[in-house]
Design a protein that fits this description.
This protein folds into 2 domains: 216 residues, Metallo-beta-lactamase, Chain A (4-Layer Sandwich); 89 residues, Orthogonal Bundle (Arc Repressor Mutant, subunit A). The chain has a 7-stranded mixed sheet. The N and C termini lie far apart (54 Å). It has 326 residues and is an alpha/beta fold. β10 and β11 form a beta hairpin. The longest helix has 22 residues. The structure holds zinc ion (ZN) (2 copies). The site of one zinc ion has 5 residues, from loops. This is Hydrolase. Keywords: Hydrolase. InterPro entries: B_lactamase-like_C (IPR048933), Metallo-B-lactamas (IPR001279), RibonucZ/Hydroxyglut_hydro (IPR036866), Sec-metab_biosynth-thioest (IPR050662), WH-like_DNA-bd_sf (IPR036388).
Length: 326
């Protein structure tokens, strides 16, 4: 596997290792006359540190040549090394306001998101006996995003990356506040995890963030799928052509999954039961967290569309049933 791929005079792809089945996250170095922009530097692990030191040395890039670190979204596999880079370069770290709000919920003082998620999962049928393990899993991410950077807020609109001006476009769904960077003239997009080749990006419900994340995702996929994109540079897997077709495929995939889950609810079930029926019962804690959040996101959309309903909206535990079977 090539760790470094030089795509154009200005765009260098760097595969930063991940200790997850995804295997790596793509960071991009964009060369410009004022220095380098680093997009999504990766998860903070000793392996990633060693890789970056080696890659920068081989490419002849000193830390002081880095002018900015730009994040498509706040997920740890993209944001985690931003603070490490900032310590060495003094460069600003740019992230959307919604992304930064989640950084504070997830890894700020008291990390309120852990508790909110555990309460959410419990309400949706996650077994009490496994809560400790889930808590440990969530806490384990803090060191993978530390030290945390000083963040400069990045808004929708023009943003200079290297010597070209891109349009930052908010594309919620996979992550609230997710931004893609689009160069309309060159028809190039850095699409983060919004649209990925081969992989269906996770769409999670998170308390206090977005009421209907899958609804937001399908809407933004349809919007973004209309843009002319010759080359898309994703957060995972390889840069590819055929961005619009892939966006449509993802919309279809979610409609199929919605129909499948609706079909499973001819008798009342919790989100946890629907999750195991959909994703299987051999998930690691890491996979379970995302599978359950994704199931909840689907059920919320089905409920918003009136296709399923809560059996007893007043009860502590949420059970859903298909509207058609009432
Ligand atoms: Zn992500
Ligand atoms: Zn990612």
């Amino acid at each position: 596997m090539n760790v470094v791929t030089i795509h154009t005079d200005a765009i260098i792809q760097v595969k930063v290792p991940l200790p997850f089945p995804l295997r790596w996250v793509n960071a991009y170095l964009i060369r410009g006359s004022r220095g380098y922009t680093v997009i999504d530097p990766g998860l903070h692990t000793p392996e990633a540190e060693a890789l970056w030191e080696q890659v920068l040395q081989e490419q002849g890039i000193a830390f002081e040549h880095v002018e900015q670190i730009v994040l498509t979204h706040h997920h740890p596999d993209h944001y985690g090394m931003a603070g490490w880079f900032q310590e060495r370069t003094g460069a600003p770290v740019l992230l959307s306001e919604t992304g930064y709000a989640q950084v504070q919920l997830l890894w700020g003082a008291e990390q309120p998101m852990s508790q909110l998620l555990l309460e959410l999962f419990t309400r949706h049928g996650f077994p009490a006996a496994e809560l400790d393990e889930m808590t440990k899993h969530m806490v384990s991410f803090v060191e993978l995003v530390s030290p945390q950077p000083q963040v400069t807020l990045l808004r929708e609109g023009p943003v200079r990356l290297g010597d070209r001006v891109y349009e930052a476009i908010e594309t919620p769904g996979h992550a609230a506040g997710h931004l893609v960077f689009y160069d309309a003239e060159a028809q190039v997009m850095f699409c983060g995890d919004h649209v990925l080749p081969q992989i269906s990006p996770n769409v999670s419900f998170l308390p206090q963030v977005e009421e209907n994340p899958l609804g937001a995702y399908l809407h933004s996929l349809q919007e973004i799928g209309r843009l002319e994109v010759k080359m898309a540079y994703p957060g995972h897997r390889e840069p590819w052509q055929g961005f619009s077709a892939r966006a449509s495929e993802l919309v279809r995939h979610h409609h199929e999954r919605l129909a499948l889950m609706e079909g499973q609810l001819s008798a009342p079930q919790s989100a946890y039961e629907v999750c195991r029926a959909t994703f299987g019962d051999r998930l690691s804690m890491h996979q379970m967290r995302f599978a359950l959040s994704e199931t909840i996101a689907h059920l919320i959309l089905l409920e918003a569309e009136g296709r399923i309903q809560q059996v007893d909206p007043e009860a502590d535990r949420v059970y859903y049933v298909a509207a058609a079977s009432q």
